[in-house]
Amino acid sequence: MTTQTPDSRLASRAPEMLSVLRIVSALIFLLHGSQKLFAFPPTDQQPPLASLMGVGGVLELIGGLLLLAGLFTRPVAFVLSGMMAVAYWMFHAPGSLYPTLNGGDAAILYCFVFLYIFVAGPGPWSLDAALRRR
């Protein structure tokens, strides 16, 4: 009989928590795209589709939906991680050295969360995992 320690019990839930991290991050991220493209949630910011912010909105919405479902997770997470790195250095960093002052803290966090998801995969609650099981 093996006795589980609190650490091993928590560690055994890590794959599901990876799925939760992916799902929650994707939900919040896709809202940035829906706000840019459809003004939902309501905003005054609606960039032209043929602008860098418009293209970013498309990537946020479509990439967020794919990550939410856990479909093509690794390549999508890789692209979105890179997009967030570019967004930080192009739009936030020129304003200030400090992310809390330049408004780029979310871009940095998304960049590294997506990089982690690229490396770790989608977790068990994903279409990618369901397709692998078939």
TrEMBL record:
Q: Name one GO cellular component term.
A: plasma membrane
Which Pfam family, any one, appears in the UniProt record? DoxX
Q: What is its main location?
A: membrane
Question: Keyword Disulfide bond: yes or no?
Answer: no
Q: Where in the cell is it found?
A: Cell membrane
List all membrane-crossing ranges.
Answer: 49-69, 76-95, 107-127
Matching entries from InterPro entries are given as: DoxX, DoxX-like_oxidoreductase
The way it spans or sits in the membrane comes to:
Multi-pass membrane protein
Per UniProt, the keywords (alphabetical) are: Cell membrane, Membrane, Transmembrane, Transmembrane helix
Q: Indicate whether Nucleotide-binding appears among the record's keywords.
A: no
The family assignment reads:
Belongs to the DoxX family.
- Tell me the protein's name: DoxX family protein
Instruction: Give the species this sequence originates from.
Output: Limimaricola cinnabarinus
